[in-house]
Write a structure and sequence with these properties.
With 677 residues, the chain is α/β, with parallel strands linked by helices. Helix content is 33%, strand content 27%. It folds into 5 domains: 108 residues, Up-down Bundle (Four Helix Bundle (Hemerythrin (Met), subunit A)); 183 residues, Rossmann fold (3-Layer(aba) Sandwich), CATH 3.40.50; 137 residues, Rossmann fold (3-Layer(aba) Sandwich); 134 residues, Kelch-type beta propeller (Neuraminidase), CATH 2.120.10.80; 99 residues, Beta Barrel (Thrombin, subunit H).
């Protein structure tokens, strides 16, 4: 196959031959036979060259090659007959007829092979071009080249700083061509795709000047611009009128709404070449490849580091819900020191969370932006990042593959208006936005649980409960409420299509029947005076901490309230269990236990003593097991159950303990084998 530009050149040569026929006709008519023969010879030489090019690309069996041979024969006969035996008109008609067949064959029977070049600069932004590249590589008539280009950080004074080249960071299935090995001037590609349109007009980074849109336009038959970002709501005029938009033949945008914003931004400038007709053709709403990646990316398509996988799927425990924490450049520049305070607040809130894992993915240019535009805050930012990474309790993701995070995460949390937020919306995943101004802090939601397609949550320190539908994204108030000092609920469990919410600072169990859309409150009474006499340190406001279901009942584990409370939904009755052995205690803490988990029909509790407390939900009885080991003298920090093992963390040493049930013991034995990991 021939390149498109090459085919155009061949057709231009054939058109030149047609024009030469006119001159041959005139020479013969004026009996200037030597001039006619010389021109016919030139025509034959050009025909040989065209034939050689076609034969090299299409093979000697190509019909156009045979037709060119026939045309050369016609040229020979015209040269021989130029002595006067042929009239000028007959010669002209014979040559044109033979050449016309060649033209039709070249135009209609020789397929064109396009050469398309993609010029990403940051590997993490490759997803903005990936699906277009995939379509190009799938086209048998297209040669697609991925040529990652170098870029520079900018110093605070605007000069060029450190140079970066990320050619080695792309997926293995993407063949890379080095930027210094692709000769644009020589190859003159049919199309070039760029996703950085700023040229020199970026305060943080700039691509190498050799790859500014102003220069690429000289060597590309067509220059196409696809923004590396996607927008949730709108785009600023400055982003719409970058040089890449000016020099591109087409700019492909995510939606018709955004397309209108680009057109209007250009019309405001009122510059020549910005007429409505031109702009309507220049800007095309075709969606964004980033949407394609967000929708199609699944966890099975990615590999996770072992350390990350262990955080997501802790040994012996259920998979944690992943919250992707996204921090943007715009918010960082707007809030300065307050933004760093916000980072600390968020990281502190997620540290040690049993059910949720924070996956922090800052904007790829955050550090460069601090270095260039907020250098006095750089060290403090790097300290926060370093502390988070060394802590080992969350995931810090500065990799090139943003879609891995979108695929694995269950929720988005972070700054508003970012491309990642738009990707989560495209993937139909919940989005939660952070507020940086703590003096005007928005109401923070506490997730209680899920049933079917609905997520239940409560604004902190209010008695109302709302639901969020994963499918329709509809938020519905299922229980109106009011503000209170304590947290009313902390967790929800599902039983038979009904959600039961664990009471903390309000003395009632709330149930919600999802099929009937009906809430029911079941009050319970606490004799505070009696509790204070028996347990002087008892305080109100944090009654229960966890809930478990078994045998059609719900068991609420006391936090400050010294009991396990059992609800029988069929009878609407409550029972309290408090008679556990005195060997189990939680030291000076107000709570009865530091942690609990469910192990089949038993609730397992740990505290500040070197024993494990078991509560049998079938019989309502307690039992304890001593764990004699040097590391367990001060008790345990947490406990979880999975794959037939209990997993504990010793408070004194932080050691992880694995207790595996012994084989060969009597059926009701609760003995375990202890292994220190």
């Amino acid at each position: 196959m021939v390149r498109k530009a090459q085919k155009a050149q061949l057709l231009e040569v054939l058109q030149t031959l047609r024009e030469a026929h006119e001159a041959v006709k005139k020479y013969i008519g004026r009996c200037e036979l030597e001039a006619a023969r010389a021109l016919l010879s030139d025509c034959q030489e050009n025909a040989f060259q065209v034939g050689g090019i076609i034969e090299e690309s299409e093979g000697e069996d190509c019909p156009a090659v045979g037709l060119l041979e026939a045309y050369c024969e016609a040229l020979y006969q015209a040269s021989v007959g130029a002595s006067g035996s042929l009239s000028a008109q007959k010669t002209y008609k014979a040559l044109n007829k033979a050449l016309l067949r060649v033209e039709h064959s070249v135009r209609d029977e020789i397929p064109v092979r396009l050469e398309v070049v993609f010029l990403p600069y940051k590997a993490s932004m490759w997803d903005s071009l990936k699906s277009v590249w995939g379509a190009a590589t799938a086209d048998p008539n297209c040669d697609a080249f991925v040529v990652p280009i170098p870029y520079y950080d900018k110093n605070p004074d605007g000069s060029l700083g450190v140079v970066h080249y990320e050619g080695g960071m792309y997926p293995k299935d993407v063949p890379i061509v080095r930027y210094d090995l692709y000769d644009f001037e020589k190859r003159r590609p049919d199309a070039v795709f760029i996703h950085n349109g700023y040229d020199s007009f970026n305060y943080v980074t700039t691509v190498h000047p050799d790859f500014y849109s102003t220069r690429l336009k000289k060597f590309a038959a067509r220059l196409f611009y696809i923004p590396y970002f996607i927008s949730v709501n709108s785009v600023s005029d400055g982003m719409c009128t970058v040089p890449g938009c000016w020099y591109a033949d087409r700019a492909f945008l995510q939606s018709e709404k955004i397309r209108r914003e680009y057109i209007n931004a250009f019309l405001k400038l009122g510059l020549p070449g910005g007429t409505p007709e031109i702009l309507e053709n220049k800007f095309v709403a075709l969606g964004s490849p980033k949407f394609d990646e967000a929708i199609l990316s699944k966890p099975a398509g990615f590999n996770l580091p072992e350390q990350w996988d262990a955080l997501i799927n802790p040994p012996g425990g259920a998979r944690k819900k992943i919250v992707l924490y996204n921090t943007s450049i715009a918010a960082m520049l707007e809030w300065n020191e307050k933004y760093l305070d916000k980072l600390r607040t968020v990281l502190h809130a997620f540290r040690g969370h049993d059910a949720a894992l924070l996956w922090w993915r800052p904007h790829p240019l955050c550090e460069s932006t601090y270095r260039s535009m907020r250098p006095w805050l750089l060290d403090e930012y790097l300290q926060i990042v370093g502390d988070f990474q060394r802590g080992g309790w969350g995931i810090f993701d500065n990799s090139a593959d943003v879609n891995r995070a979108v695929a694995f995460a269950d929720y988005y949390f972070g700054d508003s208006g970012s491309a990642l937020q738009a990707s989560f919306l495209a993937a139909a995943k919940p989005v939660m936005l952070q507020r940086v101004d703590l003096e005007k802090l928005a109401v923070t939601p506490l997730i209680l649980g899920a049933e079917g397609t609905k997520l239940f949550f409560t604004p902190l320190r209010t008695t109302c409960i709302l639901s969020f539908d994963f499918i329709t994204h509809e938020v519905v108030t299922i229980k109106p409420g009011y503000s209170i000092k304590e947290w009313p609920y902390i967790q929800g469990v599902s039983l038979g299509g009904v959600m039961y919410f664990t009471p903390v600072g309000i003395q009632e169990i709330l149930s919600y029947d999802t099929s009937k859309n009906q809430c029911t409150a079941l009050p319970y009474k606490i004799n505070t005076q009696s509790l204070l006499e028996r347990i002087p340190k008892y305080i109100t406001g944090s009654d229960f901490s966890n809930a478990y279901t078994y045998g059609g009942k719900i068991f609420f584990v006391g936090d400050f309230y010294p009991a396990i409370m059992c609800l029988n939904p069929e009878r609407g009755s409550l029972a309290y269990y408090t008679a556990w052995p005195s060997a189990f205690h939680n030291g000076d803490s107000y709570s009865i236990a530091t942690a609990s988990c469910q192990m089949n029909s038993q609730i397992v509790l740990v505290g500040a003593s070197p024993v494990i407390l078991y509560f049998n939900m079938e019989t309502g009885s307690f039992s304890i097991e001593e764990i004699p080991h040097d590391s367990t003298a001060e008790g345990f920090l947490t406990v979880s159950y999975g794959d037939g093992s209990l997993w504990l963390v010793a408070k004194a040493t932080g050691s992880i303990l694995n207790l595996t049930r012994l084989r060969g013991r009597q059926q009701n034995s609760a003995a375990f084998r202890l292994e220190l990991l």
